[in-house]
Amino acid sequence: MKVLFACRPQIFDVPGGDTVQLLKMKKYLASCGIEATISPNPADIQNGVFDLVHVFNLFDIESMHEQTGRAKKLGIPFVITTNYWNPIEFFFETSHSLLHRMARSLLPRSSVFNYYAGHKRKRMSNDIALQREALDRAARILPNSEEEALELQRDFNQPSEKFSIIYNAVDFEDIETADANLFADRYGLRDFVLCVGRFEERKNQLGVAKALAGLSTPVVFIGGVPSYQRSYFDACRRAADKIPRSLFIEGLPQQEVFSAMKAAKVHVLGSWWENTGLVSLEASICGCNVVTTNRAPWREYFDADACICDPADPTSLRSAVDAALSAPYNQSLAERIRERFTWPLAADSLKKAYESVLKETLR
Question: How many CA atoms lie within 13 A of 168 on its CB side?
Fold first, then answer.
């Protein structure tokens, strides 16, 4: 079987969770006899070359629309890994509109949010229509959790039988080969609070920095800084001035990130929304206690074995980090990840979804 992984054009220039998904799925599908080719170019979708097209990321509207449209035109079945969470609250909480801020200072939050949400959905109506069209045309929708599937069913009225859950996972070989002392020896830090992720408003490093003001434990932020997020990165650094010991590192090779995780005590992900939070899974395997956002499918992945925080509430963020710092390492989370969230298991589930789609197209 030959599959085209259709992705966003910046997949390697501005890497994210979908970058990891692509590379790991390509690697582990090969052992299942499936050859995957990665390309952001819709022109690479060709009859007679690929049996199936796998589109990643429902939010890259323009690329996704071109890719799914071409697959549909050529009669090649396609599936979508959506990486979806309803973004309205994120837009609401991070709005820079002066009128918006004034309204929030004068009126109840619920009233302002309801008005804002209705207005925002109207402004996004074209994008939402394109997303719905792609989902309607897809042979299969591949969310990374049951909770994500429910979001998609609610927002786009998709039938439940159209979904196949493909869980995100961890590559244990990569983590096991990481040098536990590399980061600690270079920066002179151990048992600190770590926050890994591309610097952008959705990841909410600014909220984390503000919530951890005055924390005596060192706090380390690691992540790439896209050119369009430079001012946000600067704001995060200014906010961290109130943390007695903070360190900002603009991106590291993956093995060095794993080394940092092995040297840390706690990993915190306080995002406004997450598909899963691959870094939280990786951090747990590296030996961190995990703090993760409640704007994500945390129940399926973390259950009661992580400290859950509300990104809108600085007190919640701080309390979750304090609890994770004072607790012994949670071994049960790492054990569950090793049992349920591995790339071989994910690749096997994906292979079955592909085979089901191709079988249906032959009927």
Answer: 29
